[in-house]
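Supplementary notes for students who missed Thursday's class. We covered one full example, reproduced here. Read the sequence, then the structure, then the short commentary at the end.
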Amino acid sequence: MYKLVRSTTTRLSTLNRASVHRGPTNDVPPAIGPTPDLDPEISKKIQEDKKRLQWRTPYSDRPDSFYSAFKLFASENRNSELVEKMQQPIDLSPSAILEWWQKRRTTIEAHMQKFIPERHATLGDDIATAHFIVHRGGSVRFRGSDKWIQKDEDDEYDLPRHHIPGMVLEEVRCDGMTLFYEGMENIQKLLRLKHLSFEKVARFDDWYLDRISGNVLPSLERLNLRGTAVTHRGLNCLYRLPSLKVLLVDDPEKDIHWKLTVAMLEEWNPNLRVVASE
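Structure (token representation):
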């Protein structure tokens, strides 16, 4: 009554498998979707453009491109930061949001304190350093003047906007400022600077002192490190300051390590006095 009909499913699947494994000349599976019939020259140009764009410099990193303020929120290692964030649970508690915001503000401020070569090339090292210090709450004094330049109640200050020959920065006070390691490079090549103070700069530690002593400060005579996080280990780098006469620290006789380090410095430089107050 009913006639059995053999199914063709097995045959079709066999043909499909055979079409994939036809031989060594057809190891690449066929492309999915329609294949555009492009001119060989156009296809070659597309491949070259893809290769060129793959290794090009991003527009945000080009010196002649538009600099957006939102670039400050971008990390140099975006991929690793994204993977790290994705592996952590989302915490939207007020304390976590406040911690994130404070960390972000710190990152932005550290970025803003980076050394700008164009500023020093335009204004000169002395005036450029004065702008950097005074703008962030410090004070400076130039040679031949008894006036200390600092911001007033309206955050205004009087400093030249162009290079003026003969203006020599002689004293710099960074007392109580929020300074980052990135900003230390701005205090460099001050060939006639005599007094430099970092009193109560909480972040100032041995790394900061190493960076400062590595700058070109051949005339520096007085350095104030009271209220900082500098240890006796950091004092070893002060041999780079040959003209140093007075070094102010919290307690030069704090322990045996401080005593030995101070004695070594004073032996190396007989004109140097390491004291707690003048």
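Commentary. The CA atoms of residues 96 and 185 lie 33 Å apart. The chain is about 35% helix and 10% strand. If anything here is unclear, bring it to office hours.
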